[in-house]
């Protein structure tokens, strides 16, 4: 009996299929990555409209990322109309709460998210939001995450005292 083996990437993200004759096995492949690829840039802290999968960009994020953990960061959260505005402040007594995502396909997602947030040279300057790295904590650890921080004056914006956009 000759063993016929085929291997293919299954349509579901990260899932692969191998066939041994008529037997099908599904498995996940962990790709070896160099140390330069294993950096904190793989994480994104989300605290507002990107949390909603009914939002196209929230659904896109969920397609290209895995939820890593609930998270919180020192700062203040404001209501800026149809979306929240985070201003981080390591000296603040207040916390802003959200979720940390581990990005799987960074090159595909940053362009889309930057466009959604109006970040980059193609948008009016100064950008309303800027993408920056900040320390975000979970219940077990603190790690460096990218986040979109409000970049304009918050002087006339209402403060969301709970630090949770969904409760405003």
Give the strand content: 35-45%
Whole-number average pLDDT? 82
Radius of gyration: 20 Å
**CATH homolog superfamily of the largest domain:** Gamma-glutamyl cyclotransferase-like
Major sheet strand order: 4-7-5-6
Explain briefly what this protein structure is.
This protein folds into two domains: 1-31; 39-167, Hypothetical upf0131 protein ytfp (Roll). The chain has two helices and nine strands.
Provide the fold topology.
Blueprint: E1 5-9, E2 15-20, E3 23-28, E4 43-46, H1 56-64, E5 65-79, E6 84-88, E7 95-103, H2 106-117, E8 129-137, E9 142-150
Antiparallel strand pairs: 1-2, 2-3, 4-7, 5-6, 5-7, 8-9
Helix pairs in contact: 1-2
Protein model, in words:
Keywords: Transferase. One of its GO terms (molecular function) is transferase activity. With 168 residues, the chain is mainly beta. Helix content is 12%, strand content 40%. The protein is built from 2 helices and 9 strands, in the order ββββαβββαββ. The strands form 3 sheets. Strands 4-7-5-6 form a 4-stranded antiparallel beta sheet. A hairpin with a 4-residue loop joins strand 8 and strand 9. Helix 1 packs antiparallel against helix 2. The radius of gyration is 20 Å and the shape is globular. About 18% of the residues have low confidence.
């Amino acid at each position: 009996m000759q063993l016929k083996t085929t291997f293919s990437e299954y349509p579901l993200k990260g899932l692969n299929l191998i066939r041994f004759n008529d037997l099908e096995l599904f498995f996940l492949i962990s790709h070896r990555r160099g140390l330069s690829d294993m950096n904190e840039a793989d994480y994104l802290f989300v605290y507002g409209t990107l949390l909603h999968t009914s939002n196209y960009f929230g659904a896109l994020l969920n397609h290209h990322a895995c939820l890593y953990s609930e998270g919180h960061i020192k700062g203040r959260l404001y209501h800026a109309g149809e979306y929240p505005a985070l201003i981080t402040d390591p000296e603040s007594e207040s916390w802003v709460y959200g979720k940390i995502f581990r990005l799987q396909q960074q090159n595909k997602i940053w362009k889309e998210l930057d466009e959604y947030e109006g970040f980059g040279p193609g948008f009016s300057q100064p950008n309303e939001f800027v993408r920056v790295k900040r320390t975000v904590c979970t219940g077990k650890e603190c790690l460096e995450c990218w986040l979109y921080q409000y970049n304009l004056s918050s002087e006339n914006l209402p403060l969301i005292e709970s630090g949770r956009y969904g409760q405003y």
